[in-house]
Amino acid sequence: MTINLQLWHYQGALPAAIAGTEDLFRLANRFTAGPGFELQVVDPSGASSLPHAQVVILPPFIDDRWEQADAQVIARLQALQGTGTLIAACCASVFWLAEAGLLTGRTVTTHWALFDRLRQFPGIKTVDQRNLVVDQGDIVTGGGLFAFQDLVLHLVSRFDRYATAKRIADFAMIDLSSRLQSHYQRFYPDYSHGDAQVLAAQRLCEQQTEQAWSVSRLADAVALSERTLARRFQQALNLSPGEYLRQWRIEQAKQRLENTRQSIEAIAADVGYSDVSNFVRAFRQNAGLSPAEFRDRKRPSHLADG
User: Fold this and answer.
1) Going by DSSP bridges, is the β-strand pair 139-142/86-90 parallel, antiparallel, or unpaired?
2) How many structural domains are present in the chain?
3) Neighbours of 235 (CB within 10 A)
4) Domain residue limits at 282
5) Which residue, of 132, 148, 183, is where some domain finishes?
6) CA-to-CA distance for 76 and 196, rounded, in angstroms?
7) What is the pLDDT of residues 153-166, one digit of tens each?
8) 270, 274, 191, 221 alpha-carbon torsion, rounded to 10°
9) Taking a C-beta distance cutoff of 8 angstroms, is the pair 41, 9 a contact?
């Protein structure tokens, strides 16, 4: 039986995701041995009614229009609940599923830069920081802007065969099996919170990266107790001082791995790790890759210095 899908083309949708989704399903119909897919692009804000579809896909946004949820789109999403329609959303469009109340009790994902904001919705069970696609049966969510490709290939694999998805991926040169969202996640500190002592602690971390800062030393340096520093960090940055230090060190290590030829041992020491094995363990936990794997992935041979 042909699978009927709708791709909702609302204001602000990423044009490349609209065209790319159509192209990937064209390839699916070219390569499948089954009945294939019928994809219809519709405007959920303009049409008075929409035909039934087995799958509804919400593309990512190119701008910040996702922050003002379209009431008509939200109402249409709510009306789909319990109908058996699978709803797939990618990047910031996942927030519209949350606005519609469809993510209660679910494990979901979104763009790595939006994890903390998505966690603020009550009822979400877990925000998965590792995987690019999370399948919860009738709700499937994807990570960053161009993870719509991973989302489509997942749907092809689910409704057709993995072999079809793999053939599309090979033909289009898309990495089907080895990408994780954690490979791309970066740490960009917030300096706009307005807490002068937290900001002073952040600057100390930056200016003296090689120092083996502990939370107690950092608290002493900015004339606060450990407990007060922890409370102020949580209020200002939604992170503990210890987690901030870990993320800052790993980010500095990523930049050195990408932009220098320093040895991993030297980088570990430069960012405050006296034990290389502890550094490698912390790096893998953060990035899903070892430092060497990260360097190989981020510095492909055709871009590396001669």
Assistant:
1) parallel
2) 2
3) 11
4) 196-298
5) 183
6) 46
7) 999 999 999 999 99
8) -110
9) yes
